[in-house]
Amino acid sequence: MLTELRRGVLFTIVTMVLFGGVYHLLIWSIGRIFPRQAEGSLVRRADGTVIGSSLIAQKFTRPQYFHPRPSAVDYNAASAGGSNYGPSNPEYPKLVHEMATASGSGLDPHIPPAAAELQIARVARARNVNPATVRELVREHTEAPLFGVFGRARVNVLELNLALDQELPSSAPSPRSGAPSPRKRGEGLSRGTFSECPSPREAGRGWPKAG
Amino acid sequence: MEILAVGLTIALTIATSIPIGRYMARVFSGAKTWLDPIFVPVERLVLRLSTVNADEEQDWKAYAKSLLVSNVVMWLATFVVVTLQGMLFLNPDRIGNMEPALAFNTISSFTTNTNLQHYSGETGLSYLSQMIVITFLQFVTAATGMAALVAIIRALGGSRLTKLGNFYVDVTRAAVRVLLPLAILVATVLMWQGTPMTFEGAAKATTVEGREQAIARGPVAAEVAIKQLGTNGGGYFGPNSAHPYENPTPLSNLVETWSIAVIPMAMVWTLGQMIQRRRLALVIFLTMLALYLPLVAFIESQELGPAGSMEGKEVRFGAAMSALWAATTTVTSNGSVDTMHDSLTPLGGLVPMIGMWLNNIFGGVGVGFINMLIFIVVTVFVTGMMIGRTPEFLGKKVEGKEMKLASIAMLLHPLLILGGTAIACAVWAATKDPGTALGWLKNPGAHGFSEMMYEFSSAAANNGSGFEGLGDNTPFWNISTGLVMLLGRYIPIIAPLALAASLAAKPSAPEGAGSLRADSATFGLALWSVVVVLGLLMFMPVAVLGPIAEFLAMR
After folding, report:
1. A7 lies in the same domain as A87
2. Does the beta carbon of B443 lie under 8 angstroms from any beta carbon of chain A?
3. How far away is chain A from the Cα of B16, in angstroms, using its nearest Cα?
4. B262 in a domain, yes or no?
5. Are A58 and A28 part of one and the same domain?
6. Are the beta carbons of B311 and A93 separated by less than 8 Å?
7. B377 and B340, same structural domain?
């Protein structure tokens, strides 16, 4: 039994060092080939400060920006999650649409092209530009499914919004000093921030329309 | 178009499982392979440092003893780490110690290859714990299941055999020469696609609209790779592979879906190769496939149908691949998710439950086939009775002792699930104002029942997925599911090991014309029927109370 115990203890220590330590260092070293991805696909300003990650949704409420899908965790990237509403739950969204449904992670960085299309008029109005110009930018930022079949066509909201700011600078106040959005909502679920596509129960509560 | 991706993924996984199965057979038989120059020295080093004599052959009792002793030591060591993680190094986000009841659940969950998580990774574990507790256990517990199956395979192939190999040699080979190379490959693809691998703490961002956003990250790629390959399923972040860092693109989703099923599928071919019964392996594989494909077709019809929605799903995967993942992760006892199962359609949500109830369609690495072996023995017995002959499997008589062991392993599963759910319901019913007093259920009615039943199904099947609307980090759920996971892991390994050893000790008689050959289509059909009928008998009543009642109420 003592031999058995010694083997068990030594095996635990050895494999813990191998798989808990050496393996991680090996993968980390391979990760040097992809330095941008390995640090989390961070997007930076010219001065080096971090705007966010192109893989992680961030909150957008102002009319001149495209808005991401609703988040059950209010885009908290330090504690992510979905709504976990069952289909028979009264809170389960009635509209079968990505803009009314919370994503599983609460951090889905993408919206489908149809959801972007619904927001083009609002964004163009807020920026005082031709909707066709905005539509063209959306088209440029639409990724096709892999090999045409894996996943769905999608638009990265943060990348699209950054491109908007660069190519069609807004006449609205600059983001840092801007007045808070009139549609700013409370804690928790932020369904319906996308005003052109309110779910029935939200429309019933009469939240203000944007634009 | 989306559904084409589902077919392609399944085809790719089956096709690649064949060479991997052959490779594993060579590894476990001690034959040479092309990866030996790199990984054999590592294997030798691990065994030498652990003072294991590689030539020592163990009978089934010694093999089981080594398995249990090593697992107890690992349990204790990792329990100490998580309960003290707040005082240890590699903790840039300053995560505190894990409290004992949650630690009991977490460590039992990861030593049993279940990976049920009552904590959320980014807020509950330090980087050190993610590395030397979670990732470490994801390697060795997957390898433990594979080792147990390899011993059973040797027993099935032997005649008057008592020695089944050496546990430490088998577990080391599985971890170092099968899981490690595949994990390095998968982790590299994931990093290329965007999965982080860094030891720096959370990134602090100031968003475009000027809000502060802390973005949790860490050594993610290393863990996600083995979590998928070892039918572990315990994610780095709370939302598991729905999180964009764990699963950034459609390509990473394809690779991760492949990783869930490829080793469980390959283990069937390994069996055929090792005991030179390729036809038997083919019959079992096709039987498993004939159980798997209808489940996939059904969940696709639900999630892509009029009742389906994108609630809980991610745009970059779409509904079809999300549904495929849900079906695959539960038949294989993996338990990782790329969509929130709680938000599946009522009948779509039934599919993951069926996968866990049967728990033998490809199943967990190693243990899935062990569960199927139980059903094979039962089928041999049933068909033997039907044609009025002594039941035989691979030329060995199946007698009372084997049937008793098979029954113990088979009946334990429904006992744990139904018994656990009944106790939870009784506690719920006996509590005054249970919704606020217990804080368990996020959803009302039949769906709430499903949440509790899903939790025990997941624990007993060592799956680890959840209907996460259940508020499960409470003493009741932590202790009860912790115990269920331990019972649901070790008894269904030890009883079949004893069963196989009992068969191995018997002389092998040539299969006569009167016996039903196990490598025939007739036997495959009988096995399929036995699995379906026993599954219905055991679990149909609770299926009606949960998902089916919800479905009917919503019409």
Report:
1. no
2. yes
3. 19
4. yes
5. no
6. yes
7. no
Look at residue A207 and tell me if it is in a domain: no
Report pTM.
0.91
Same domain, A47 and A27: no
Q: Are B482 and B109 in contact (CB under 8 A)?
A: yes
Judge whether B46 is closer than 8 Å to chain A, CB to CB.
Answer: yes
Contact B46 A101 (CB under 8 A): no
> Domain range holding B494?
367-554
Q: CA-to-CA distance for B410 and B372, rounded, in angstroms?
A: 10
Three-class SS state of A42: strand
Phi then psi for residue B380, to 5 deg, are -55, -45
B360, part of any domain: no
Q: Does A179 touch chain B (CB under 8 A)?
A: no
- Same domain (yes/no): B295, B240: yes
Phi then psi for residue B206, to 5 deg, are -115, 115
Q: Are residues B341 and B440 in the same domain?
A: no
The span from the CA of B292 to the CA of A150, in Å, is 21
Q: Could you tell me if residue B362 is inside a domain?
A: no
Residues 413 through 432 of chain B touching chain A, CB cutoff 8 Å:
none
CA B280, CA B286: separation in Å to the nearest integer?
Answer: 10
Alpha-carbon torsion, ordered B261, B262, B263, B268, to 10 deg: 90
Helix (H, G, I), strand (E, B) or coil at B163: strand
Fill in the DSSP letter of residue A43. Answer: E
B543 to chain A nearest CA, in Å? 16
Contact B309, B289 (CB under 8 A): no
Q: Are residues B280 and B382 in the same domain?
A: no
User: Does A78 lie in the same domain as A21?
Assistant: no
Q: Answer yes or no: do A23 and A51 share one domain.
A: no
Same domain, yes or no: A105 and A151: yes
- State how far the Cα of B302 lies from the Cα of B316, in Å rounded to an integer: 20
A52 sits in which H/E element: strand A50-53
Domain housing A83: 42-174+185-196
Reading chain B (555 residues) residue by residue, the pLDDT tens digits are 789 999 999 999 999 999 999 999 999 999 999 999 999 999 999 999 999 999 999 999 999 999 999 999 999 999 999 999 999 999 999 999 999 999 999 999 999 999 999 998 889 999 999 999 999 999 999 999 999 999 999 999 888 889 999 999 999 999 999 999 999 999 999 999 999 999 999 999 999 999 999 999 999 999 999 999 999 999 999 999 999 999 999 999 999 999 999 999 999 999 999 999 999 999 999 999 999 999 999 999 999 988 888 889 999 999 999 999 999 999 999 999 999 998 899 999 999 999 999 999 998 898 999 999 999 999 999 998 888 888 889 888 899 999 999 999 999 999 999 999 999 999 998 988 887 778 788 777 889 999 999 999 999 999 999 888 888 899 999 999 999 999 999 999 999 999 999 999 998 877 666 677 889 999 999 999 999 999 999 999 999 999 999 999 987
B394 domain residue, yes or no: yes
Q: How many residues does chain A have?
A: 211
Do residues A169 and A65 both lie within one domain?
Answer: yes
Q: Which site among A3, A19, A50 would you substitute to test the B interface, given the most B Cβ atoms closer than 10 Å to its Cβ? A: A19
Count structural domains, chain B.
Answer: 2
- The ipTM assigned to this model is 0.94
Contact indicator for B441, B453 with CB cutoff of 8 Å:
no
B385 and B314 co-located in one domain: no
Q: Distance (Å) from the C-alpha of residue B385 to the closest C-alpha of chain A? A: 43
If contacts are CB pairs under 8 Å, which of residues 136-165 in chain A contact chain B?
Answer: 145-146, 148-152, 154, 158, 161-162, 165
Q: Do B317 and A151 touch (CB under 8 A)?
A: yes
Residue A163 maps to a domain:
yes
Q: Is residue A211 part of a domain?
A: no
Same domain for A84 and A118, yes or no, is yes
Residue A202: inside a domain, yes or no? Answer: no
In Å, what is the CA distance from A45 to each residue of A37, A53, B152, B196, B425? 17, 12, 59, 20, 54
Same domain, B389 and B317: no
